[in-house]
Amino acid sequence: MDDRAEHGGPRVPQQRRPGAPGEPAALRFDVLGPVRARRGDEQLATGSPQQRALLAALLLREGRTATAAELIDALWGEEPPSQALAAVRTYASRLRKALDPRVLVSESGGYAVRGLGEGALDLAVAQELAADAEKARAAGELGRAREVLNRALGLWDGEALAGVPGPYAEAQRVRLEEWRLGLLEARLDMDLEQGCHAEAVSELTALTAAYPLRERLRELLMLALYRSGRQAEALAVYADTRRLLAEELGVDPRAGLRELQRRILQADPELAEPSAPAEQPAVVRVRPAQLPATVPDFTGRSAFVRELSEVLAAASGPAGADGTGRVMAVSALAGIGGVGKTTLAVHIAHLARSAFPDGQLYVDLQGAGARAADPETVLGSFLRALGTPDSAVPDSPVERAALYRSVLDGRRVLVLLDNARDAAQVRPLLPGTEGCAALITSRVRMVDLAGAHLVDLDVMSPDEALALFTRIVGEERVAAEREAALDVVAACGFLPLAIRIAASRLAARRTWTVSVLAAKLADERRRLDELQAGDLAVKATFELGYGALEPAQARAFRLLGLADGPDVSLAAAAAVLDLPVEDAEDLLESLVDTSLLESAAPGRYRYHDLVRLYARSCAERDEEPAAAGADPAPSGQRGTEAAMSRLLDFYLATATGVYAIERPGERVLDHLSRGSYPGLEFPDRGRALDWLFAEASGLLAAVQQAGTAGVLRRAADLLLAAVDLGESGISSRQYVRAATAVVTAAQRTGDPYAEGRARLMHSHILGVSGQFDESDREAAAALKLGLAAGDPVVCAQAPNQQGILALYTGRHDEAEQHLTGALAAFRADRNAPGEASALCNLSRVHLATGRIDSAVLLARQGVTLYERDDTGMALRLANGKYALGLALTSAGEITLALEALTDALGMFQDARQQLWHGMTLFRLAELHLADDAPARAAASAEQALAVLHGIGGEWRRANVLTALGRGLHGVGQLDRARVCWQEALTAFEALKSPEAADVRALLASAPVG
After folding, report:
1. Burial (0-12, 13-18, 19+ Cβ within 10 Å), 537
2. pTM score, two decimals?
3. I need a surface site. Which of 72, 218, 529, 754 has the fewest CB within 10 A?
4. Helix 167-193 crosses helix 122-138 at what angle (to 10 degrees)?
5. What are the pLDDT digits (tens) for 328-344?
6. Backbone angle region of 595, left / alpha / beta, with phi > 0 → left and psi within -120 to 50 → alpha
7. How far apart are CA 365 and CA 511, in angstroms?
8. What band does 368 get if pLDDT is binned at 50, 70 and 90?
9. Is 116 helix (H, G, I), strand (E, B) or coil?
10. How do beta strands 414-420 and 437-442 pair?
11. Is residue 69 packed enough to be buried (19+ CB in 10 Å), middle (13-18) or exposed (0-12)?
């Protein structure tokens, strides 16, 4: 019985739409897995394997009648039993009773399944989805096609027709599996077309291990590896494939695979970019339109508009016969803050939009602030805006800049780089190709930016300034008081930003006259002096808005500018101001109305960088020492110091609460400072972690700013409470800067307590990033300081850290000595979770030195301590399960080890610990190797590489590559395995790690393909 459809997968019974007369209610059938029948949520009995075989044969007949002879042949083939006909009738009768007499009908001496409702058979649904995906792909809608194909593939529940006997079922199983693999290859092909190369490598590695002779999967894996920057591995896959085909089938790779190898060897540039098949419509490229809105009342600057428009026209115009006339144009506008550089650049960019049909990019480079935007980060943002998927964005700044220029090649894009710090920040962001243009604004003249058209933007002329003022305030009001209006714009120094602020305030106050505003600006002594002092002109401009604030608004404005974070949450702002959240919100929103503060997002606020500088100067000038009892900070502190003290207390109290949720019962909580300002409380762990990671920049900036003796200990304790920020790998760089700042300040003030804790946390994060030698030195220094200060936290955690570092670097005797000391210190402090940590680390030392039984015992003791009293210490328990899984793997207790590591994996994921998430995947790979499951090992190792991308350091990456190579070797991909081992060896040798010897042995023993 050959029941294939003319197109797509096997044919299925004809289906009716729900609501047709006599249709059984909610009757559903599955064949893409075990054969099942359901009515609603109830699973119906389908009888013996032969009875299910009969049902499957009828379901796959597309509603046509199967004769008794055909069914006998389907169930038993050439050797049916003597009572085969009677058996068929019995099976049919039982199925009719179990299902519905109207569904399984007798006809012409045979049987048929008729009248199924729409979507009643999973195979029919899969066919419809596959057809929809094919249409979507033909229309160029790759994202939708992938999503629909994934839904179709998700209908499989293991092997199709699982457990169903008979030759017909076996033939259909083979056919359905071939169809499934075809769908899977189509989806993976679209994955690569959309740039999801890195994500596809892990899945393709597992698939090529499961289906080693399927050349299309090998071809897709080669392409995914090549586009992920792993050329050597891609070529190794070809070598493995060629050898396997020759050994197993005596044939060479097919032409497509050979051609792909040739193109990889030649570094064919077309391979680097996804390309849809020729018969498909081209995928529409992303057209960014990032320009900020131009101001509707733009006034004057006509000469500059003409000049810059002509420069842009040189880039957008047609090339001459000799190739001239079309260039990559760069124009750099320079001037003091507030002179209108951004307004002019945005206005010109909007006028030129039609000349750059492929899009416009914009970024504020924050060059006037303390932390200018990193070109590497900006390049990543631009690449994504131009349609590059995250997985295809390179890591290094040089590679990002090169890809950026490549993506822009052939496009006509305008790039507006606003508020640049200097030429060095700008150079990597320039397009570098004809037809594109860049507009740059900066407070400095970029004389060292080669080929740039430099424009010095001065203040407005009196006529232009008055015209701008009039457009904002209104012709009628200005005409009635022209002289007063001239006085106003003169008081503003003809600076556009100052004029706009003054005019906007006047426009918002209908009861004011122009003379009222002019009178407010009459006292020009200080303001005019500042206007003549270069950058102080901006401060004079902001004096208009600041001077008009109510006292409470002014205090909020100047105090909030003290915090270094990129923005501030409402709750943190309330702490700075020492106000209830509701009152603080009213004040902040009133400042937003004056344009002195921006609303970054609901409940979050930020300053323009120049406004922040002005606010700080106001704080230095206007804040008086706090009155005794009026502030939670010590009497005699200035208001600025008290405000920052409250902010630090708020962060410390809230982070301590998060730490307590993550690590309940942890003794460290009893050794943390208690500030005088309360923190937030959270109903659950998820919201607590949301807060911690959302506040990372502001929190760590507050630590970095804490440079005085009165707050240093709280800053060091905040590092302890917020350890998850550094350990996760997400904020480790900023965390290290903050820890270093506390160490420096503590050395200056002579505080061994704060210095010891800061060095301890610095050591911890250095270890996380794989800098073991530096981490060890910091841990030793921390222990010395901790002993001097009598700090139980440092005295226990520092040797614990030294022990694990000694383990990583193969110094097992030292590791055991350090960890034994840590264990004693934790016990002396009655710190059960710390004791558990030391026990689990000791377990790993015993494991490394061949004492497997004691390693298992120690790990189990640690887990028991973590679980004691049902403290719910999920994150620390995950560490215990991790250590136990390692020990059980070495002990050969694979099932128990898999359970422990799987538990740890889920806990680390929930806690957003990316580093330990990746390391647990690596340990699962080692477990699968021990269980002689190399394909699963390779898949887990690939996942570990993806999760650990950019974090954990080279030592950890090299260990994962070693495991990946062993898995690949086990599935016969010998050349690719050698590539992985060679890369691991290079890393180990650079680090002088003892693991290098093991990898050399692997390379020496592995046959060369």
Report:
1. buried
2. 0.59
3. 529
4. 30
5. 667 788 765 677 888 88
6. left
7. 40
8. low
9. strand
10. parallel
11. middle
